[in-house]
Amino acid sequence: MATIPFFDPTRPPPPITIPPPIFDQSSDENIVQEFLRSRPPASSGRTIKQSAPAPSITNLRSELAQLIEEVERMKVDKEVLEKEIISQPDFKCDAQLEQLQLLQCSIESKLLRLNDPDRLKLLGKKLHGRRKKRAWLKRRNNRLKQEREEAIKNRTKLHAQIDEWQREQRKLVEKEKQAQQELDYASHFLADVHRRKAACKRYLTKFEKMLDSATLDRDMQVEIDELRRIWAAKLSDCVKEEKRLRDVLARKSAANFQRRVENEWNKTLFGDAIPKKFEHPLLGADRNREVLIEIRRDWDACLVNRDDDDDRGSAIPLGWVLPNATPSSEWAKYQIMETI
């Protein structure tokens, strides 16, 4: 009977032994040597040229100013020295000559530094970049100036349109006020006519009652008849004036109602009660109600049924539209005859 080994969890596991790596030192050295032999030999005289820093235009300007100043000073010192030599032949000018030589050396060193080709090339590139930047800035400033001028022009145009719209609105309001005032005046006059008409009827009724009484003599009856005739004429005038005022009020009311309806339609269709002006006829459909109706009628003239007897338009045909067998001379040149 096989026995199972006892497992004790309290005992630590046995140490893990990692075998050491196997290095073939000779093969590694051969690989390195082969790699080094395959590379080209390095040239000992090869030097890396470092790029000189870009000269500063401000420093060059100051150097040129110093150079010009030294040249001017050298000219002045030379003239002074020549005058002293001419005036005093035994004058010792060793110190002055040495100073002039130092000044000349300084000028030559500055000229040599300024005439360096690499430095001049870098300076040319820098000046070219600066010119490009200034040209770009000039173009940008011109563009911004044009945009500002265009914005000012558009703002001025917009303000002019706003002012025109406000004037039209004020005219419309004044027109409405004037129409309402005329209606109020006509209503007031009509009320006065009603009052005078009622007074005429009242006096005529009184005169009728006076004539019905039997206590009046002949002279009184004649006078009452004359008064009746006068008040009857006044009543007739009041009736005529009332009819005229009623006709005026009816026309005014109808005109105001029609204008209010048109204003409501304009506001509904275009957002404004005043019809706008337009330059192009095809752009008036979204600005003027009459143009919109006219264009819609032109479109509706082509949208008719095939069975209608109306000659104002025809329906859009379906399928191919075959040419006429006997075309006119204008269309005959486009006809292609098939040959069998």
Automatic annotation (TrEMBL):
One of its GO terms (cellular component) is U12-type spliceosomal complex. This is Putative cpij003559 tubulin-specific chaperone a. Pfam families: PDCD7. It comes from Aedes albopictus (Asian tiger mosquito). Residues 57-84, 134-182 form a coiled coil. Keywords: Coiled coil. It comes from the Eukaryota.
